[in-house]
Amino acid sequence: MTAFVIRRLIGMVLVLFAITVLTFLIFFATPGVDPARQFAGRNPDPTTVAAVRHQFGLDRPLPVRYALMMKRLFISRDLVSYGNQALEVVPAIKAATPVTLSLVTGAAVLWIVFSILTGVLAVVFKGTLVDPLLMILALIGISMPVFWLGEVANLITLDRWHDTFLFSWVPPNGYVPLTQNPWQWFLHLIIPWITLSVLYIGFYARVLRADLLEVQSEDFVRTARAKGLSPERVMVRHMLRNSMITFVSLFGLDFGVLVGGGALLTEVVFGLPGVGKLTYDSLQTLDLPVIMATVIYGAFFITIMSAVVDVVYARLDPRIRPT
Amino acid sequence: MVEPGATDLTLDSAPLLATEEHEAAIIGRSPWYLAWRRLRRNYVALGSLGVFLLIVICCSLAPVYAHHVAHSGPNDVHAGEHVRVSGKLRSVVGGGAVYDPKTNTFDVKPVVYLPPTWWHANGRFVLGTDKLGHDEAVRLLYGGLNSLKIGIGSAFLCTFFALVLALLAGHFGGWTDWVISRFFDLIWAFPVFLLAIAIGTALQVNGFHHFGINIEPGSLWIPTLVISYVLVPYVGRPIRGQILSLREKEFIEAAIGQGSGPLRVMFSELLPNVASTVLVLFTLIIANNIITEAGLSFLGAGVRPPSPSWGNLIASGQDQIQTAPWLCLVPGIAIVLTVLSLNVFGDGLRDALDPRAKVRLEH
Amino acid sequence: MTGKRRWGWLLGVVAIAAGLAMMAAAFSAAGTKSRAPSNPQAFPKLRAVLDTIDYLDPQQAYTGQSWWAMWNVYETLLTYRHVEGAAGYKLVPGLAQSLPTISKNGKVYHFKLRKGLKYSNGHKVVASDFKWAIKRGFLATGQGVGFYTDIAGAKAYAAHPTPNGNISGIITNNKTGSITIKLATPRGDFLTILALIFAAPVPGGTSPDIQNGTIPSTGPYRFKSYDPNHSFVMVRNKYFKPTKYIPRGNPNEVDVSLVGDADTATQMVINGQADYSNAAIPPDRIANAQSKGRLKLRTNANTYYFWMNINESPFNKLKVRQAVNYAIDRGKMQTLIWGGLGKPTQNVLPPTYPSYRKLNLYPHNVTKAKTLINQAGANGAKVTVWTRNVSDAVDSATYYTSVLNSIGLNATLNILPKATYYTTIGNVATHAQTGWARWLEDYPHPLDWFDVLLNGNRITDQDNNNYAWYTNKTTNKEIEALKKAQVLTPAVNARWAKVEKQIMMQAPWAPWSNRTFPEFFNKSIPAKCIHVQNLYGIDLARLCK
Lengths: 323, 363, 545
Fold this sequence. Notes:
The complex is a heterotrimer of chains A (323), B (363) and C (545).
Chain A: H1 2-28, H2 35-39, H3 46-55, H4 62-75, H5 89-124, H6 130-143, H7 146-160, H8 182-216, H9 219-226, H10 231-262, H11 264-270, H12 275-285, H13 288-316
Chain B: H1 13-20, H2 31-40, H3 43-60, H4 62-70, E1 82-85, E2 88-91, E3 93-95, E4 98-100, E5 105-107, E6 111-113, H5 136-172, H6 174-189, H7 192-202, E7 208-210, E8 213-215, H8 221-230, H9 232-247, H10 250-257, H11 262-298, H12 310-317, H13 326-353
Antiparallel strand pairs in B: 1-2, 3-6, 4-5, 7-8
Helix pairs in contact in B: 2-13, 3-5, 3-13, 4-5, 5-6, 5-8, 5-9, 5-11, 6-9, 7-8, 8-11, 9-11, 10-11, 11-12, 11-13, 12-13
Chain C: H1 2-30, E1 45-50, H2 64-70, E2 78-80, E3 91-93, E4 101-102, E5 108-112, H3 128-139, H4 154-159, E6 170-173, E7 178-182, H5 190-194, E8 221-227, E9 231-236, E10 253-258, H6 262-271, E11 276-277, H7 283-292, E12 294-298, E13 302-308, H8 318-327, H9 330-338, E14 342-343, H10 366-376, E15 382-388, H11 391-406, E16 410-416, H12 421-425, E17 434-440, H13 447-453, H14 473-483, H15 490-506, E18 509-515, E19 517-521, E20 532-533, E21 537-538
Helix pairs in contact in C: 8-10, 9-11, 14-15
């Protein structure tokens, strides 16, 4: 196990390093990107531009600039954005993280509950109309692009039916911190939670249903029923537990991706200032320090969750050995 | 849908299947033929394949529609024109604030965009117009063409590369496997939007003209290559998993024992056994890529305006979502239909090829 | 059977619980929408929503949004009147006792600082603080330093700026409060440049590091707090004494939220969560917003245009450039791009300038345009249209591309990211043929337009602002001559109008709009309380309830 952990840690560091180098190269290879020019204002003197360039170390060779940026990001933690020199990158990410966490955790709770419910119901009612109906709904959920669903949600809740009692409580797009006003925090996040979770409910419901069906034909389930245990007990204590392995491992991966900034589209559509939106905004303005920081942040989460999932998977299913 | 027991590949099912052949002698059939028979009886899957093919055909006929029915190209602006709808003359884009030079004020009035004419204007503006006076129906079809090109093209590339890498990783194991797995990790951890925007931006001004490859800025190859690159782990990991488990089987040992080189083992033994997985994954990844492309285009990193794609039609439609919601809704419905039909067909394909398959697409 | 019924029961319970929760949310939140009417005289807090600001540091801020707030915080030697209309362009004394005396050769400006001035921290304002502000601009490489390089000794200082270094052209005397500025070469727009917030005096020795909101202020308000990208708060400056030209300000406090999304901002005003927003409401929603709040329209000095590089084929031919001007339907473009909220134009300068004479050299005529293209032999010429990735720029450039195609050219659109657009088209190596641009005035003087954008002598290979690479001996000479004119007399204005007409006859540009911006207020703000200062926008100080 220790060997595995060490190997994965080395792998993770290598991956992060490679990603930062790639990001750095891609952006500095982009023609027209000249942060010095962006800083120097609208009518810069050539001397002003040169002075700014020197001040930010932009006239040094690439490897030196890369090292400087990494040092300012990790060691001195005073890296500033190219777009707004008052904005420090690390605090900006720290401020954006709770938003993303709120969005993703809430959506995760929703999708865990409803996908288990849907999957279990589909198996319980297998043979009736309910099963294919639920599965079609699940498929439709997977087939909807999340940003389109968000736009439609906005259209319905903020515009067309906003004045009816159904949706008059929906506040305009944005985010209110939990510490500031819990009720408003909740109201602002309900529709984004539902939108983000629809896709995952569909996907996980199908996964769970397939696994449950497989488990259903196993001998130990038949034994449990034969012993006289109630269907609910059999379902919850025997079937679900054995089917959750894939569910848990996939959940870990998806959660990692989302927390790392994968909920970008949802955050953009609903105007939530999370890590995903920060990434998107910084890409629009080609703000390299912020891009770097968000990429590292995201990659870190994804690779860590990937390793954690492998370990958990191995613990849950002794037949698998982690590689 | 499918009766349990009738279609697994056990000795018990041979007589069941044989009864279909009018009590003729039991002939050994290849798994492919059996799969085809199973698929043939799955009407839902065939129906959705039909829907998908219908969508593809309609989109391929976009130039015909544009030229003969709508008389408008996808990028033609008709803002100043008038159209006769059910006999009444209406302007394509009318209304708007009116400036009074005498009082130096504006009389604010809403802008009126031509709503869908549903064929009352002789095939022009069937789905109405957008902010700039484009014929939405023409743009929807051309957009579908672009989205499908990118979706299917990138699925081919992605599957091909994933297959090669997975074969290498699964067969050789050890360090090769470690390197390729970390390579998969690297790609997975790199956000797709970042890569798409970065590459798109870097190639924006001049395009890419090196090593004999010529890519113009704004070419469809950019999103295609980016999406195929980014989704290699999605396809590669399940295949690699399957190859790893296949490798333990005796027939591989036998083949190696007989002296088959790695290439022969990979192509003659491993590949055919993962073929059904690959086929199913290919179908599902087309669906996934269409949605990814839509997301990229929505963010402005995929198909560049004014070229339409379903994703950027939704993006430009969101500006008018209050006055002309169909502009945002229709391309979305098109995406949902296409992707849904592919998913249903992919399910049916998986049931047909290997009813006990555990393969699924990781997100 | 039992199993299914049990699960069905569970499902039913969950559904009912969800429905009850939603209804509870609806009824509880419904009560928070109405607001009690406030005392019409007092204006305790103005809640405004802005898009983004760059800085709240006077030597750094260079966006209209920042200046809107900072005009009421950092006073300059000269400032503008808090009134509507053309009178709002008149320069009046701010921190100076009166308008300066100017030497005959236009090179020496003499001011005297008002007595008894104090910063918001109680310290006295002295004459040397002005000099420190200019030096600080160079030390911090602020975005506006380019304006002050004509002060004698400034260029030398800029080459090696140090805190103790001297700019020989600025001489101050703290005892008498006199400030004398010597110019290396005279400029007619120097007074307006002195009125820019870049020249706002700050306490001597203030560090050149960017300080957003912590520098003591001289205006009616001071900054209390700043949360980057989120909000900032302004409160009254208790040491401020109102003058004839600078009023005290009605709101006690101004809370500004920075919201990037125009829909959200508009919705906040409609809901009563904010009093004011100047977000660019999308054209199809303006009529709707007008019914739910109070809409005021403001035309500031701006021109939107398509430039045509006279060095690149086919735009090196006059006939092609003229054809383009004939081909675009400016009236329709206002509807398409702004929902009608814009005025068509064929001028370089917007109508706010006294020198403005409306030009109609190119009435809309597509047939004539096609003929001209034929005559020039430019049929089928490949053209790349450049634009930046902002929705109105993309829309107008899309329309423009379509028009170019309809008159016989072969045009394609290339959309660049916002951050790289100006550097790319301003670089001679790009060989950009034509594209989108706009100019918002920095200060109200024709030099800000003609000298920066259309003076052939100021063309550079990189970071060029003259995207048409336009140069012409006659107009270049006239612009240089007019640079020296101290005052915009009617005669000087007539010469500016003539230069403008000569330039437009060469058609390096196809100007198409002077845009009008919506200013959106909550219904609780009466219309008579809203005053528009042409330069700085809604007069914050005079907003009342």
